[in-house]
Amino acid sequence: DDTLLGGLGADKLDGGDGVDLMYGGDGNDVYTVRDPADRAVETDPGTGLDSGGTDTVNASVSFTIEPFIETLKLTGTAAIAGTGNDAGNRIIGNSGANTLAGAGGQDTLTGGGSDDTFVLDAPTGTSADRITDFSASQGDRIGVHGSDCGLAAGTLDPDWFESGATATRPHAEFLYDAAARALLWDPDGAGAADATTIATFTTAVGLSHTDFVVL
Is 0.90 surpassed by the pTM of this model? Predict the structure, then answer.
């Protein structure tokens, strides 16, 4: 178990095996994580603010980045999970089946190979994630939290999904606007409330209710 302290420039910190505590400090720092309990810290201990730089964690295990880390890259081939912080992060999967969650902010999610699950934030109107490589034929899935939408865990009922930009049903539902490559959540269906964009896609995708999993 090691404690590593970076300097004023761009540092590479790797504690090896064990549970490590790593402080990057100023500069564009790169952390290597091998244990889920490792900590990569960019919070200035004196001010509680960002130490500075654009920082990256390379993790071969499931990992959640702390505040002020910008990028999380999953390495290796294992089926692991990567979770962001409250800011807009870039989260990149490995060649295995990954679960990627931005966890706040406008995140960019890239699954890589295999069948990945992209877990979306609550529909706040300010945290629409961008998914760069969704492929239903590859087995990718959109994950939503049932507590955010009033849905039971499991598969998504087809009555809660509609293609198009305008809801026609008398209850809440997901909409996929293919022209805008946008996934929306409408809290009251054909009612007066506006639909909220919860994700966009960089390539054209054909979504259906079978591409969702309710967590």
Answer: yes
